[in-house]
Amino acid sequence: MLFGAFTNASQAMQTMDWAMGSISQNIANVNTTGYKEKETLFKTVLSETHTSPPTSQNSPTKNTATTGLDIFGVRAVDRTMVSKSGTITASTTWSDMAINGRGFFIVTPPDSTGAPQTTLSSSNTLYTRAGDFTQRAVNGNNYFTTADGNFLMGWAADNLGVVSKTLSPVYANLGQKSDGMATTSIQLVANVPSNATMTGATKTFTDTTSVTDGFGTAQDLTMTWNRVSGDTWTVDFSLPANPASGSVGTITGSPVTVVMDASGNITSPTTSASGTGFADLTFDWSAGPTMQNTASINLTSNKPTVQGISETIAVYDGAFNSHNLTMNFEHASNGQWYMSFTPVAAEGAVSSLTADGTAYTNSIPITFDGAGNILTPATAELTVGWTAAGAGSNTITLDMRKLTQFSGETNNKLGVKVIDQNGYASGTMDKVEISTDGSVMAHYDNGESRRIFQIPVASFVAPDQLDAISGTLFRATEQAGDMTVASISDQGSGASIVASATESSNVALEDQFTRMIVTQKAYSVNSNVFKTADEMTQTIRDLIT
């Protein structure tokens, strides 16, 4: 039994020595970012088995079977308190991050050249909650790295900010030039005033100088313009009545079809020798020496004035340069409008104008119901060909579903709430921020911002069973269970990535001092057990000798 005392006491001192090592490690790392406490537990272990001596010959129970006696010592069993979170503390470094929730940052060590790993595996993928990241320039990129040089992994985003769920090293290159984006869509949230002046469907003009009858007398020529569509009118010509004969003459070539562009300029007819915008008519007179003559009538000086309002928006061409595109709204009649588009100062031309799949020349008809809600169209599409070299052409989709017609404060102004287009100029990255969902947001000097990476977190079924590579770095094990890589926002319950903050160690210093006192006392008592057993051994030795 004395040898059991030696064994147990020596095992206990070795165990307490091991526990003191864990305590000293915890105390040494009390200020280490993301450090996880190492806790030493104690487990009994069989040290000796003794058989009781045989009974005396004079005993009534002589020759009875002997019994065994097991002697149990102690050994150390370590566990790392990985799932126990430390306190999140604000820092002054923008690249620092803390996980407010479950999970770990995913990191990989550099390859032999110091560059990020290109192929991930279970052996080179590690996990940490130490978010004190710094930047390291490698091969032209400024990567996020841990204090011990491991590269932070995340999901890269494309030019539209859409992430790919493939892990790659996270970087942000301040000062990097970024291409702009050509305008492809416009969101229109606005109100056209129902009390705006109307162009009307019919307009009548009188020309008193262009026509002379058979006697050479000037006659009034009446032109009646009738609206056919947003671009097209028909013009009927008539002469005054003759009280005696019923008419001073007849006209050949009437009516004339007239087409106007988005600016209200006549583009047809073009057949006259006088140029575009003239109507060639033949007059047969009822009296006079000259019974017939022809005349070219100037339609431009006798045309309806389009009653419209306009709004100009900046759009971007294929070279990411800004142009002004004017949207014109003409109030044709009650509940009926026409919309057209005009690039400023001959910088381009509009073509391929459609609305809800129907093609139009220059103007799109817009109709509203009696409650001021738009009936048609839901969307319009136009192509703008730019004249500048390298600018190319834009096909732009206009969302019109939120256009309304209510009474406005003025009759010549569009009630704009939002007119937003998705194009922008080229820019330089001048700032980077980390969002609560882990998005790495790059800000550019052109006013644009976009996500360039998203930082996911890896979660395990039993995180305390991860293999501790160090106090802050862990490797996946079978005992830790299945791993899930997801956005922190998928956890719900307010989980987030906290920027400019770090997670402190989860070591409670007062608890470690208590453990240290208890461990020291246990070591001292076991040393006394060993000393006492030694003294008893010496006494037995002296009795034998």
From TrEMBL:
<comment type="similarity">
    <text>Belongs to the flagella basal body rod proteins family.</text>
</comment>
<dbReference type="InterPro" id="IPR010930">
    <property type="entry name" value="Flg_bb/hook_C_dom"/>
</dbReference>
<dbReference type="Pfam" id="PF00460">
    <property type="entry name" value="Flg_bb_rod"/>
</dbReference>
<dbReference type="GO" id="GO:0009425">
    <property type="term" value="C:bacterial-type flagellum basal body"/>
</dbReference>
<protein>
    <recommendedName>
        <fullName>Flagellar hook protein FlgE</fullName>
    </recommendedName>
</protein>
<dbReference type="InterPro" id="IPR001444">
    <property type="entry name" value="Flag_bb_rod_N"/>
</dbReference>
<comment type="function">
    <text>A flexible structure which links the flagellar filament to the drive apparatus in the basal body.</text>
</comment>
<dbReference type="GO" id="GO:0071978">
    <property type="term" value="P:bacterial-type flagellum-dependent swarming motility"/>
</dbReference>
<dbReference type="InterPro" id="IPR037058">
    <property type="entry name" value="Falgellar_hook_FlgE_sf"/>
</dbReference>
<feature type="domain" description="Flagellar basal-body/hook protein C-terminal">
    <location>
        <begin position="501"/>
        <end position="541"/>
    </location>
</feature>
<feature type="domain" description="Flagellar basal body rod protein N-terminal">
    <location>
        <begin position="8"/>
        <end position="36"/>
    </location>
</feature>
<dbReference type="GO" id="GO:0009424">
    <property type="term" value="C:bacterial-type flagellum hook"/>
</dbReference>
<keyword id="KW-0969">Cilium</keyword>
<keyword id="KW-0975">Bacterial flagellum</keyword>
<dbReference type="GO" id="GO:0005829">
    <property type="term" value="C:cytosol"/>
</dbReference>
<dbReference type="Pfam" id="PF06429">
    <property type="entry name" value="Flg_bbr_C"/>
</dbReference>
<dbReference type="InterPro" id="IPR037925">
    <property type="entry name" value="FlgE/F/G-like"/>
</dbReference>
<keyword id="KW-0966">Cell projection</keyword>
<keyword id="KW-0282">Flagellum</keyword>
<dbReference type="InterPro" id="IPR020013">
    <property type="entry name" value="Flagellar_FlgE/F/G"/>
</dbReference>
